[in-house]
Amino acid sequence: MKVQSDKYTEFVSRGLGKDLAKRLGLPQPAVLRRYEPGAPLVQGPVLVLGHSEGADAVAAVLLGWDQDVRRHATPKERLGAVVLVLDELAHPDQLSAPLREAGSSLRDLARNARVVSISRPALAEDSPEVAAARQGIDGIMRSLAKELRGGSTANGVLLANDIAADSPSAMSALRFFLSARSAFVDGQFLTAYATGEPVGQGTAESREAAEADWGQPLNGRVAVVTGAARGIGAAIARTLARDGAKVIAVDVPAAGDHLAQVANEVRGTALQLDVTATEAGGRILDHAAQRHGRLDIVVHNAGITRDKLLANMDSGRWDSVVAVNIASQLRMNQAFLASSHFASHPRIISVASTSGIAGNRGQTNYAASKAGVIGMVRATAPLLSGRGGTVNAVAPGFIETDMTAKIPFATREVARRLNSLQQGGKPEDVAEAVAYFAQAAAAGVTANILRVCGQNLVGQ
Ligand code: NAD
């Protein structure tokens, strides 16, 4: 399998290339820290800012994770992360003090540092003052993400349904953003919802989180990954297996050899299957039931592009993209939801695309299918919540794979620089986000669309 590499980033990271890029004012993308089991969560002390009870509770959780926690900045100390807890905002006037305090500590950030906000979503039923203050965080974090350098990122956790700042789902999102798992996620928000049960009293959600094994969070779970023979799908299969899942790797018969290689590598099983087949969902369920007695995690990754301007679009291009990218997922989900084998805290994670959010020239068919995935995810969430399940989507931006290697060189070079981290992502970056959504600790994180795009300048 061909591994795509970004030679430019390698060149400007050291020696002569670094000096040259500096002198010519060329982009100097940082080498991003990627997740490795056993490596520290963050590289340096974590400064927790905010004066609410929620801020104290979040600081306590971080101490429980063995982090070196500060409640006030110490001049010149290299910080691994700043966590900004603003869960009690009532007016935009209240943003000034905590944000200036955060700002003054930003010069001391280590490379690949993290800034994470924890706040509440602005809702139509809020008073205009409260909504203005809460929505302000959105603008702040998206702007800050564009200001940070050296591989550092800024993201936010939103606490829906009045859940506590330290609720297990919110803390799982905080942990994801702090960790190197979120290397290519920048300027984004994750919303954590209540799971229908009170938090912190030995309930399902807190038990799951308390038992969380952060090293092998998917231990014993059974996962199916479609389009797993190469690219992002193969990376998802590897990442889920690394995190402890048993993986069923699915791809078309024509990709059988590569599929077998991936399945062997992850000690999983291969299932040759075209996801557009009417019986695809049933065949996956049969395969999972026979080998493992159940199915816990479904990753809809298989996807194709057939680009043409709409004026020149033929029905073959349109129909094949819609059939593979969205219609197959709708049909398979119906089969999964009807099955007793997919009943214990199930997880569905779909791979969408930033094209489905921002649109892309020549991709009306692809954007229809990927925006369709987003609509499907939001409408499927209530169907799964009854059985303690979640459904989310990741929306990759420019990821270095065979799919993007087909883009002409000049367009590709521009496309991969047009984001705050000034580089393309790796298939592993998408895979880490998928694996996060699959965790038991993310039980209240549902109906989210998470962009893994380095804060692409296109769209939101
Ligand atoms: P890829 O072309 O490298 O791999 C896609 C895999 O899906 C292939 O192995 C292919 O055989 C398989 N597949 C295609 N049709 C299938 C079918 N009918 N049944 C079963 N398997 C089928 O693509 P990739 O770049 O790894 O993309 C994976 C997903 O990520 C796709 O959904 C794609 O739309 C999405 N995505 C990719 C990027 C990117 O930059 N690469 C960006 C946004 C979204």
From TrEMBL:
Q: Which Pfam families match?
A: adh_short_C2
The residues that cross the membrane are: none
Domain Ketoreductase as annotated: residue spans:
221-397
Q: Which InterPro entries match?
A: KR_dom, NAD(P)-bd_dom_sf, Sc_DH/Rdtase_CS, SDR_fam
- Coiled-coil-forming residues are none
What NCBIfam families has UniProt attached to this entry?
Answer: PRK08261.1 (NF006110)
Q: Which family does it belong to?
A: Belongs to the short-chain dehydrogenases/reductases (SDR) family.
What is the name listed in the Swiss-Prot or TrEMBL entry for this protein?
3-oxoacyl-ACP reductase
